[in-house]
Structure formats: C-alpha cells, structure tokens
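Encode chain A's predicted structure.
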Amino acid sequence: MNYKNENMDSLRLKRFRCFEDTGNIEFAPLNLLVGANSSGKSSFLKFFYLLKQTIRENRRGVFLWNSQNANSVDFKDFTNTVKDGTGSIEIEFSVKDLPIYGNYGRTNSTVSEVCVSFIISKQNDYFDYLEKLTIQFDNQIIVCSFDEKQNSVVEINGETLNYKNEKRITCHTNSLLPTFKYFSSENDDDDCSHEAKEEIRSLVSSINLQGRSIYRLLRRPFLSKEKFRKRLVIEFGSAENFERLNNLYLYYTLGCVLDSINIYVLSFTRRLSYMLPLRAFAERYYRIQNSWIEDLEPDGRNLAMYLFHLDDVDKVCLKNWIMENFQFTIDVIPSGSGNVEINIQEKDKLPHNLIDVGFGYSQFLPLIVKIWKTIYKDMPSDSKGNNNDSRKLEHMILMEQPELHMHPRLQEKLGAVLAQAVRFCREKKYDVRFLIETHSEAIVNAVGREIAINGLNPDDVSVLLFNAKEQGMDNYVERAYYSKEGYLMNWPIGFLS
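Encoded structure for chain A:
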C-alpha cells in the first residue's frame, strides 16, 4: 500500500541567518543537533516553526518572519534573516512518495521524489518576493521566474512556455508556493491554460485523436517522462511529438503540481511540534478550563489542562509509562474552587505539589508527555490491536535544549526514551522524526548505549555537527554517526569538552 508522505526528507538552507550553505541535510528518525553557541543550531531548528507560522497566517511576502501570536519565531524581517543583510535566501527541500492531485480531483499517482527549491529576494525596505522556483522530479525540471511585480516566465525542461494569457500569483493562508490562475479568452479566471490545452489537442490530432482520449490524458496528474511516453502509446498508438507534448502537458498541469506541493507542506506543518528551551514555570494551582486541549503548547503552559482532560485509560497508561522509564508518577487532582494541582510522586516517597519538587520537573514534564502523546497515545487506533497499517503516524518533533535544568542522570534517561521511541516507531512502521538541539553529552552517550545494548539501528540516528565561523570559514554542518557497537564516528576530539 502506498501512503501519503507528510514528512520532509531533506533540507538545505543557503544564505539563511549565519549560514552561507548548510549543505543538503537528510533526516533520520532521530537527529541530534550539537555544536557550540552561535553555530546555527537554533536557527536551523527554528526554520521549521517559521514555516509553520507562515502557513497559518496571511502575509505580504513569502515568509512571515515575525508574528503577534504567542510562542512565535521572530526573525524580524527578510533583511535580518538573509546572511550579512544582503543578497537572496535559497531554500531547498525534498519529499519522497508525494501524491499528485489531478485537475479533476485526487488520484492514486505518486512521484518517487520531488525536490523543490526557491529563491527569496528583497523587494523593498519592507517586503520580500519570490524570485525563482524550481521543481524537479523523474528527469523533469520546471523553472518559474518572477519579477518584483509578480510577472512570471515558465520554463519546462529548458523550453520557455509562455502564452498570451498572463498568470496571476496568489499567496495566502495554507499556501507556501504561489497559486497560478490563467487568463484566457474563454474564461477570465481559469484554473488551467486554455492555450496549452488547445495546442495539445492540435498535436495529438495528427495521431488519430479519439474525442475522449484527450480528456482522459489531461485528467491524469503529471507523470514521469517514461510513463508519459507509454501513456501516449496506449491512448493514441504513437509517441509522435513526445518532447513537445510532455512539456505542454506539464505546463497545463502546473497548477496541479503546485497544489500538490502546497497540500503536502500544509499537512507537514500541521504535524510538526516545537518545544521551547525554557518551558513554563510551575504553578501551585491551575484554574480548570473547559476548552478542548488537543496538544501541548511549545512552552508547555497548558500541561495541567492537557493532563486533566485525558480519559481514565490514557491517564493510567501515561502514569505507568512514566514510572517505568523515570521512576516517578504524576497526578492531576482537584484542589477546590475550580482549580487542580499537579502532584509528583517519586518511587517510595510521598507525593508533592509540582512547585515543591524542584524547578527541573516543570521543564522536564512537557517534554516526556509530548513524547508519550505522539508515540503512544496518537498511534493509529487500528495498530493498538491488530497492527493494521491503514493509517500511518507521521510527525516531526523539535526540541530545543531539553536538558536544561535537568540532572545528568535524568538527561541519560531522556536519551534512552528517545531511542526507545524510535525503535518502537520502526517496528510499527511509523514515520516519526525527532530533531533534538542539545549540549548534553549524557543524551549523546545514552543513544550510543541503546545501539550497543538494546538493538537500536544506527542508521536511525544522525548526529549533525554545527561548527561556528572561524579562521575565515563560514558556519557549516557535518554529519557524525554511530557504529554498530554504539561508538561515535567522525567525531571531533574534544567537541563536547
């Protein structure tokens, strides 16, 4: 069975913040981002949340560099985000097994891998604009170039395909890439290129066009060159004028291409979670709120209400899981006057209010509850019983400095739990990815021990080494990895010293 992919497989940032070029970074299920201060770890991590807040709101430029919403990422503006304040930003990402949506609705067609890159440039002192967009898949290349007034030129496999109809670009909520609308003589606001369709009709008429065949062809989403050639032979008995027809067809379906990528980005950002380095301070009492709490805030401020609204089965499951892995339990109990309190009970000790057991617990609890929720509570319901993979669990979880205010022993346990979660997801065929920005040697070492002792696959872990600018070199990213024995390879001597 083919599944819709909702995770990002790789990312590359050029001239973004402190980076000239991060290089192409491929993501494993567990990614540890390590390096000195000011090496770019946080900027890289926050790019994902920048993408999330961009999709949620209307904006004038390509990205929403700042937002009025709580817990938003604030890069100020384009000038403060582009390296050295000048030039352009280039962003490139890839996704595998992307479903394609045709002109007449959803189809079951997929492309094995799509690479999307776009260049953002400064329009004026206040706004930026999309300068160039490139989409590559199955030996096909689509290039859209734009001027500051959003006029476009489209190139398909090196051939310029612009007709008399001008294209209008719109960027709005739930959309990262532009949406094209074509102006034609027949329809002032058409979703497809009337002129391209008519030229396709003219070309295939020379090979014994059947009236319904052209519409069967155009109704399908775009395909690889090889599949398109085969389709022409099936429909018309000939692949005459193949190269021209292939390019025209992609031009005709350009709106479908962009819509499919936008749908993917929207779905990806909805399943992306970000936990801030400094979580909310503990309170002795929390006022009960009747609003439905589906997820934790990035700073964990709604932890008490999230726990309070769990059903009894989930409360027991969470309590047992925390005891098994961390040797304490949590309870949310009424305290009168419409309030509740969070109680912590360490093994063989009396329970205490969260505010009385040390600051570290308030910072630690949102992280482990988030892991439990994502991996265990949110698993597809079918998989709880018979492991029917009719639904697929896909998330990307970002954690910034989870070890803050945590004892090294607790850091070590967190590293082990992350490794266990990755191993569990592999067994269940869930595509859940963790990006953990950390300075903790205890977490790094704990993951290695899980590889050596408990069978974690070393291919499921990627250690990204962020190096700060020095001796004339720009910030750059390297990759280290674990051996089958759990030893770090390609690891600089004294990196964590």
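Residues 187-192, 382-391 have pLDDT under 50 and may be disordered.
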